[in-house]
Specification:
This protein is α/β, with parallel strands linked by helices. It has 9 helices and 17 strands. The strands form 3 sheets. The chain has a 13-stranded mixed sheet with strand order 1-2-3-5-7-8-9-10-11-12-13-14-15. A two-stranded parallel ribbon has the order 4-6. A two-stranded antiparallel ribbon has the order 16-17. The longest helix is centred in the last third of the chain and has 28 residues. The chain binds 2-acetamido-2-deoxy-beta-D-glucopyranose (4 copies). The site of one 2-acetamido-2-deoxy-beta-D-glucopyranose has 3 residues, from loops. Keywords: Glycoprotein, Leucine-rich repeat, Membrane, Repeat, Signal, Transmembrane, Transmembrane helix. Pfam families: LRR_1, LRR_8. This is LRRCT domain-containing protein.
């Protein structure tokens, strides 16, 4: 009886406590927001494909990456991020805000996103020329590693020399992507104090100016993408400047589609990947590639090369290359490229990595054939054959002369004898006359 009462009492106490607990704790587990997808615990994707969001919603506390793309948030203030700040229980590290029709960002907008490491503002067109400069102020005390400013219509006047000054406080920025903007006279001095920078992407800007000070202070830079620039031949640079133009730490360089007529000789011994495709290079000189002794990837696709003589790619570099591209060049099927054919047949994978197959123009048929199908039959062997024939002819001539001499040896002897006698006789006659 006593035990029954005890059981009922404990049950009641338990129920009361349970009710209290449920009443006090709010339901703080936030579900995946409406119009968004959550492929994993750490990733939320709100891609405004049909219905566009006009605010940044509450997201699960486990979220580290928020892709908020293609929505409509024209003006960004600090409060816009209220739902995803540390104060609201979030630790967003990667924030993609691309293509949201953003025209204005207030100066301290990003200042509460304490854990931010990557920020993507691409495909937004800020109204004021100094709009970007204002936006970056809020990043002053945030450890941003990557900043994507791709396709934002940024012109030279949007890039004042102190644009990245806020990022020099913590100096954690490693990657800046300003590709596909309208920069022509980009002032590299803007980047001078960003000493942690490892990757700089400035492709598709038609940048034409580069000075020997351009990359000063970038002591850690490994990748520079200047493709679709306008460098012509680097004609304005002397050889001395060329060899010091790029940082010695550089490993990956793209100058694709930059109107180059020659392989630039940077003397960058650490470059492992060099993309020179889609230029106007007509000739490879002997030292061109030897200047890049660490090269592992070389792309010369879509240039104007007709011949590539043996030796332009030193054997040591041939060995260490893992990918090489010569496709889409008007190569002639001549003995000059027989070595290339042989190399390709020996190591086809190195060539296949770069995609399209290499062709050469056959002078016999007047049409292009695959380099691997080209049969350089009497190339290396032609001199061999000539040499053999020449030696054989010499030997035959020598033998014939020897045989002739042997056969006519008596006549020759006689002839010699007659000659000597004749001369002796004349002398006699002469002395006779003297005697008279
Ligand atoms: C926060 O998110 C909720 C819905 O999740 C939304 O109603 C609200 O407007 C958001 N707040 C801000 C400041 O965007
Ligand atoms: C770089 O730092 C130096 C020294 O602190 C400063 O004088 C200069 O203005 C800075 N340059 C830029 C572009 O931030
Ligand atoms: C070249 O690269 C190697 C390996 O990445 C590195 O140890 C070396 O310091 C680099 N040289 C220069 C001049 O940066
Ligand atoms: C290239 O660099 C190396 C070492 O970095 C140096 O010894 C050499 O003289 C340079 N060559 C030219 C042409 O500047």
């Amino acid at each position: 009886m006593v035990s029954f009462i005890a059981v009922v009492r404990s049950l009641c106490i338990f129920l009361v406590i349970l009710t209290l607990v449920l009443a006090v704790t709010p339901p703080n587990v936030i579900q995946c927001p409406h119009l968004c997808g959550c492929p994993s615990k750490t990733l939320v994707i709100c891609e405004g494909k049909v219905d566009k969001l006009t605010y940044i919603p509450r997201i699960p506390a486990t979220t580290r990456k928020l892709v908020f793309r293609g929505n409509l948030v024209p003006e960004i203030y600090r409060d816009t991020f209220k739902n995803i700040t540390f104060q609201s229980g979030n630790r967003v590290e990667i924030l993609d805000l691309s293509n949201n029709g953003i025209v204005f960002i207030s100066t301290m907008a990003f200042s509460k996103l304490t854990y931010l490491k990557e920020l993507d503002l691409s495909k937004n067109y800020l109204r004021d020329p100094d709009g970007l400069q204002k936006a970056l102020v809020g990043l002053r005390f945030i450890h941003v590693h990557r900043l994507m400013l791709h396709h934002m219509d940024l012109g030279d006047d949007s890039i004042p020399s102190n644009l990245f000054e806020p990022l020099t406080y913590l100096n954690s920025i490693q990657t800046i992507d300003m590709s596909d903007n309208v920069l022509n006279e980009f002032d590299f001095q803007t980047l001078v104090n960003l000493t942690s920078l490892e990757e700089l992407i400035l492709s598709s800007n038609r940048i034409s100016g580069l000075t020997d000070k351009s990359f000063d202070g970038m002591n850690l830079i490994k990748t520079i993408d200047l493709s679709s620039s306008n460098f012509q031949d680097f004609v304005t640079f002397s050889e001395d400047i060329m060899s010091t133009l790029l940082p010695k730490t550089l490993e990956i360089l793209s100058l694709r589609n930059s109107i180059l007529g020659n392989v630039p000789r940077f003397n960058s011994s650490n470059i492992t990947e060099l993309d020179l495709s889609e230029n106007k290079i007509t000739k490879l000189h002997l030292e061109d590639i030897a200047n890049y002794p660490s090269l592992r990837v070389l792309n010369l696709n879509s240039n104007r090369l007709t011949r590539i003589s043996e030796g332009t790619i030193p054997p040591s570099i041939q060995d260490q290359l893992i990918a090489v591209g010569f496709a889409d060049n008007p190569l002639l099927c001549s003995c000059d490229i027989a070595w290339l054919h042989n190399w390709m047949v020996k190591e086809p994978l190195k060539f296949l990595t770069m995609g399209t197959q290499i062709e050469c123009l056959s002078e016999e048929t007047g049409s292009f054939i695959l380099l691997e199908d080209y049969k350089p039959t009497n190339c290396g062997s032609i001199s061999h054959v000539t040499l053999t024939i020449t030696i054989a002819c010499c030997v035959i001539v020598v033998i014939i002369i020897a045989v002739l001499i042997f056969c006519y040896r008596k006549r020759i002897k006689l002839f010699c004898y007659v000659c000597t006698r004749k001369r002796g006789g004349e002398q006699l006659v002469l002395s006779d006359n003297v005697g008279i």
